[in-house]
Amino acid sequence: MPRFASSVSSLRSSEIRDLMSVATAPDIISFSGGMPGNDLFPLDSLDEIYRSLTDKEKQVALQYGPTNGLPSMLESLETYLEKKGFPVKENRLMMTTGSLQAIHILAKAFIDPGDTVLVENPSFIGALSAFRSYEANLVSVPLTDVGIDIEQLKIKLENTRTKPKFLYYCPNFHNPAGIIYSMEVKQQMIELLKDQDIVLIEDDVYSDLYFYEEDVPKMKLIKAMNPEGIDVCFTGSFSKILGPGLRLGWMLVPNHIYRKCELIKQSIDACSPSISQVIADKFVRGGYIYNYTARVRQEYKKRGLAMIEALEKNLPSYVTFEKPRGGFYIWLHLPEGTDATPILQKALEKGVVFVTGKTFDPDGIKNDAMRVSFCNTDEAAIQKGIPLLAEAIREVCG
Ligand SMILES: Cc1ncc(COP(=O)(O)O)c(C=O)c1O
Question: Strand order in 249-253's β-sheet?
């Protein structure tokens, strides 16, 4: 038997990954993935961008680049983030291989085996796996419909054996809970973390995908508020607003954290794909990004509203959910103590797939919730699939 490192011996394949193979079977209706709709990718813009490249740009695209990113990419992304109100000049921006790599690099920078880190419950599985791979002690704080439960956060901050290294949170159109953090909760988080020497990792990959313009002011990120006395490490991505196949994300972090992260990235992959950066740079610089996000916002809104309507029509009354106002996900609460796994088995028999709650539980136990996503299914598939899902729930729960 190969003698694996203790840091990886506890890693388990996530149900999501295992389901992916089933979920992509041609006849299955998948409410499981967190990927953009295949039919929504900006293929015309991509063709136009590629055709516009000079030979020199194509050579750059195929060459290694600087670890922190191609200068032109950094410049256009800095301008884009500055327009959104981020304090770009007071921080450093680094391109990463997806934002998941940014999260990994931050985890590596801060976690020694056994270190406590604070996470939401439920929480993004990719981040939980990253923290687990560095042998973190995950301490979870429940979510309410307006963000992390502040009273519980206070208690955890006071009672954890060792001071947490960081708090990881997902502010807008949460994965999997679908919620937006209220300004009040974010202010209270700032008060609690101020001068505590606990880093805040703010993971925001969905906030461009709002359904309602009026929500934009309250979605302001803590990084953009630039609070004193907290190191805020912001991570973002092109995955949901251009294409995850590019594997391109970024981190915007204080200079003293950036220096370590750059060294860590050097040892992982030297640089993120140059070809992706050349394309993403043009996508931002040429303004394509604004038209594209405006277009997909409308489409995801249609799908999201179709799913809300289908759920309201078909679900038994004991299943409850917060209506999403953007993003990709709806989080269904089953009666307390229900096990969502038999529901998944029934749903699969009917040709529908979703993700069970325990996937997103930092302790991997609580399974009385389900995540359904509306991003990669059109309205017709939603109208066909949700009644089948409701049937599966009734067959298990009555
Ligand atoms: C909350 C959240 N953060 C980060 C990511 C990772 O995105 P990527 O590595 O593709 O940039 C995802 C992907 O689903 C996500 O949902």
Answer: 92-96, 249-253, 232-237, 199-203, 166-169, 116-121, 137-144, 147-148
Facing residues of 321 across strands?
332
Atom of ligand 1 nearest to the CA of 236: 11
The answer to whether residue 1 is domain-embedded is: no
d(CA 394, ligand 1 centre) in Å:
32
Task: List 6's β-bridge partners, or say none.
Answer: none
Residue-wise pLDDT for 143-191, tens only, equals 999 999 999 999 999 998 899 999 999 999 999 999 999 999 999 999 9
Which mutation among 205, 206, 240, 276 tests ligand 1's pocket best, with the greatest number of atoms within 8 A of CB? 205
Q: Tell me the residue type at 107.
A: A
Of 356, 366, 349, 306, the residue nearest 140 (C-alpha): 366
- Domain final residue, candidates 266, 288, 310: 288
Interval 71-89: pLDDT, tens: 999 999 999 999 999 999 9
Cα of 397 vs centre of ligand 1, distance in Å, is 32
At 377, list the tokens: 């299914």
Please give the Cα distance from 82 to 230 (Å, whole number). 20
DSSP-derived pairing of the beta strands 92-96 and 249-253: antiparallel
Last residue of a domain, one of 263, 288, 313: 288
